[in-house]
Amino acid sequence: DFGRSSELAFVVEPSDDIAVQEQPLILYCQVEGIQPITITWRKNGAMIVDSENAFMLANGSLYVSRFQRVRGDGSSDEGEYDCMAQNHYGLVVSRKAKIQAATMCDFHIHPQNAVVEEGGVARFQCQIHGLPEPVILWHKNSMPVNTDNERYTLLPKGVLQITGLRAEDSGIFHCVATNIANVKFSREARLTVSGSHSTVYKDPMILVGPENLTLTVHQTAVLECIATGNPRPIVSWSRLDGRPIGVEGIQVLGTGNLMISDLTVQHSGIYVCAANKPGTRVRRTAQGSLVVQAPAEFVQHPQSISRPVGTTAIFTCVAQGEPPPQITWLRNGQILETSDHIKLKNNNSTLSIYGINQADEAIYQCLAENSAGSTQASARLTVLWADGLPSPPQGVRAETVSATTIQVSWEKPLQNTKEIIGYVLHIRKAADPVEMEYQEAVSKSTFQQLVTDLEPSTSYSFYIKAYTSRGASKASEVTVVSTLGEVPAMPSLFIKVINSTTVQATWEPSIKLGQHEGFKLYYRKVHLSQYTGPVLLASNVTAYNITHLDASVVYEVKLLAYNQHGDGNSTVRFVSLRETVERTVLNPPCDCMKDEQNNKTSTTGIIIGIHIGVTCIIFCILFLMFGYRGRLLMCKNVQEQLATPQIPRSQRSTTGLVLNGATRRDRDDRDLNGKQLDMNELERLFPASLSQEQQEKGIPSAHTPSAPHDETQISTLPLDEFSIIEEQPDPLPKNPHGSSPAAPAPNHGPANEG
């Protein structure tokens, strides 16, 4: 019984039909419910009065004795019919039934003569409009075409296909269209089959591709595709969106026509016909769209409900279909008009009735309709009303207390007050819809309520109901009052000392300030009573500099926001400039030019130091690499050279370390390519060897025997294989210390320049 009210509902509703001229027509309507029930009929919204031509039967059905598409007075029996049923609970209206006259026009497409070579494909077509859709049959030489011949394919839209033509297929063809209104014949067309089967290669070609179709669920769709070529192409079908076509209800007619039976909405899409040359990728395609519509049907029906007076009734009606259906609500057969207490939401799927009273008691219907069809469902609202309920509360008054508070007071009802258990205050912004209303409960001995947390400068409506255990009274009169305007909130204020005579006041814009027109800024010396100001600032200003101040005193700065309702609370800050003056005395201004020069010198030194460090690291890495390869650096008489007093850097020439033990003459032959090394660098590279020499000469060593040695120290070469050579420009001056150049050492390996 979903979608039916038990008091009154339809069992059978009228359906769409096609009527035959001058033939009788019956429209069925059957209702159940609580008697007495009255049934009436309407056509195109106008009441039908019983007459000789149309009258209602005892079971409620409508009988039309002689259907006429056009009568002598210009009227017609075609139109939309509906059935109405009424009892003392309400009135319901059936779905609309569309009645059309059966017709058949003349053929607007006739078959044409064709000459086709043997083995080819012939196609004839004829089209005609009619209601209902005419059935088209084909005749050859005045005899029905043999449909058992698999080379002959008849399509529902009046198409005849003949494949693999033979000489005996030649003849005269015409089609015959038939429906309940008439029978008509097309013109004749001759088919001539010429010559023998050709062996010349021909690319595949689609003669006729699929048309765009719009059908309804459960119907049958035929998508035509006929192709030619030599060799004969293979026809295949696919969907443009890549989804599989499936196999259920799918059939191929002839050599490539696709037939889909029992259509569903999921069959909608674009279908692609492809003619493929066998064994290759050569193909030709054509496509057509299929749109499957579904009449409206209910997913959720409205349910009959009973509600006490003053409460809210909600009906829900959800329908689906393709295209999506439109939902309309009726109240006792009349289109429902929305108001302050009747609202439609969720695309009309939800009907809400607020503060119901006895006048709202009725049968409510949900009509869902789209281009494929319509349906309806009904439900009844019963308003519960108990005798002896209190009368409405009296003397409701509302007084504004502040920008966010209103006090509401009332007097008790005049009648039936003994059973009152409390009151409910209904509150709503005057500009809001009824569904935004909220309530506050009040005890039965209280006749006033302070309503808080309201919005400033806003109108509110109030009404009261008295409640008993059996139900609520009717609503009191509605009173509307506005809250006061609100001054802005306190701004956040920050003070920044700029110099010994200037401070900067800054504040942050915030929505918490509320509506404000601007700011007022005051300041004074704390020992004075008089403020300087106000300084009026626009609402978009967020900073202000206070100048010409006395650095020896403390100042008070005050900021507030204002609007048309007045000044808001102020924010106060205290500031002293004395510390700024003291810091200036203790820290005199710097010599910026001198500091800048020092910074530049320091930076240059850092860069030079980095370069020197990187050079040393590279030298060490190269030395380790050559040492691990086993390339020995031969030098002699190291002890004698190490004992030679070093010449100050400013007096001596550059000292070089010959890594391969070459003589001065060898160096001259090599254009003095030997790498020079300072004694200090040698001491840094070979601390262990030098410490042994220091021990021999009685010099304390900085390295204890237990000190760890790195790999370079462990692989230290014998000192007797090293020679320190002082290289001086020609002519060779006399060594101030009397030492002579060392003798050349044997060459133990290839020259390696360090």
Automatic annotation (TrEMBL):
The keyword Glycoprotein applies. It is a single-pass membrane protein. It is found in: Membrane. Residues 644-657 have a biased composition (Polar residues). Residues 392-486, 487-583 form the Fibronectin type-III domain. It holds the Pfam family fn3. PANTHER family: IMMUNOGLOBULIN SUPERFAMILY DCC SUBCLASS MEMBER 3, PROTEIN SIDEKICK. This is Immunoglobulin superfamily DCC subclass member 3. It comes from Cnemophilus loriae. The gene is Igdcc3.
